[in-house]
Write a sequence for this structure.
């Protein structure tokens, strides 16, 4: 049986999401939260797990009615580990072998606090490092550049927020069902983007296959999508890819624009449409390589369009397969899976994974 690729996992994602919802995978984490009184949540995560938390954060804040902080594990260990009793902290690692995430769990334990770990592999090193382990239901990914793990972690965090809101009486059972229906409505939109991505790639192949410097722009949930898209372009295509908040783009980064730059604008949700239009129009005065992903059918020159969804805090999640498909296919076409030969030396000298981790990247 041939080994699965990133693209296979992108296609598997809707099935995983449906399974998470059917099994209410986040209920155990919500029960842990509801067992005490907390006034904020801290998610400790890095890489794609951090990006998933950033995507989930706007909706999660609204569901919880509390501030949600996303902190990298090193920063948490070095600078931000006060751990007040009013803060619900948990550490996320899809693989369960990230050394910085394991260190964060150890630090929490050293303070006599309960170390909560969320992972996609319940048999990983997280099993021993966490006092309570929560499997978010992604299953295994046999590739180094995760896709379904990002999307499913977002949905897990959303389900966590919904279940807490239900448990605290801020959502009725009927209202919970309506929120779940909105998440389920993302699946056909996700599939639509998955179908559009190869067509965009074929139509604008020369531009996309020659990208050298890229900006990925968005606000709110759209910004989280930009962060993950930038990570995928950077780690797979090995090009500088910079995520920027919609308006922050105008405060310095735009000054380096040139006709060779490629700019992606994520503008799903009515609140961002007007400013996104202005930014796109101005950017096109400098470079023709502009790609717009939106739910605004009237957006002239839009690259990818999705049907509007009532909650703009949820809807941008459907854009992820666009970046995942491009990262995979262009890396495959350009034979870029192997990195510079010296990167293998770097990895032998310093790795972000524990000794028990089986390398999935090609160096």
């Amino acid at each position: 049986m041939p080994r699965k690729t990133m693209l296979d996992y992108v296609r598997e994602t809707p099935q995983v999401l449906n399974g998470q919802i059917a099994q209410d995978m986040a209920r155990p984490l919500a029960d842990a939260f509801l067992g005490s009184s907390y006034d904020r949540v801290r998610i400790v995560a890095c890489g794609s797990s951090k990006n998933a938390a950033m995507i989930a954060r706007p909706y999660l804040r609204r569901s919880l009615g509390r501030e949600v902080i996303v902190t990298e594990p090193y920063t948490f260990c070095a600078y931000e580990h006060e751990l007040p009793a009013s803060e619900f902290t948990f550490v996320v690692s899809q693989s369960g072998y990230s050394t910085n995430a394991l260190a964060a769990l150890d630090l929490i334990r050293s303070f006599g606090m309960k170390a909560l770990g969320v992972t996609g592999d319940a048999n990983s090193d997280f099993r021993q490092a966490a006092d309570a382990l929560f499997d978010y239901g992604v299953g295994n990914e046999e590739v180094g550049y995760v896709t379904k793990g990002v999307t499913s972690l977002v949905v897990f965090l959303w389900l966590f927020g919904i279940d807490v809101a239900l448990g605290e009486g801020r959502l009725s059972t009927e209202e919970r069902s309506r929120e779940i229906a909105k998440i389920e409505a993302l699946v056909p939109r996700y599939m639509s983007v998955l179908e559009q991505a190869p067509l965009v790639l074929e139509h604008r192949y020369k531009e996309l296959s020659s990208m050298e410097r890229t900006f990925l722009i968005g606000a709110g949930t759209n910004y989280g999508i930009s962060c993950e898209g930038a990570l995928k372009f950077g780690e797979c295509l090995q090009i500088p890819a910079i995520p920027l908040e919609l308006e922050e783009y105008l405060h310095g980064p735009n000054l380096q624009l040139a006709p060779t730059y490629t700019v992606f604008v994520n503008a799903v949700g009515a609140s961002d449409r007007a400013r996104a239009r202005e930014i796109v129009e101005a950017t096109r005065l400098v470079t023709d390589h502009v790609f717009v992903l939106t739910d605004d059918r009237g957006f002239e020159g839009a690259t990818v369009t999705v049907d509007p969804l009532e909650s703009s805090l949820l809807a941008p999640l459907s854009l992820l397969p666009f970046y995942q498909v491009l990262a995979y296919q262009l890396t495959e076409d350009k034979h870029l899976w192997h990195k510079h030969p010296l990167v293998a030396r770097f990895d032998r000298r310093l790795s972000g994974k524990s000794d028990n981790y089986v390398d999935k990247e090609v160096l």
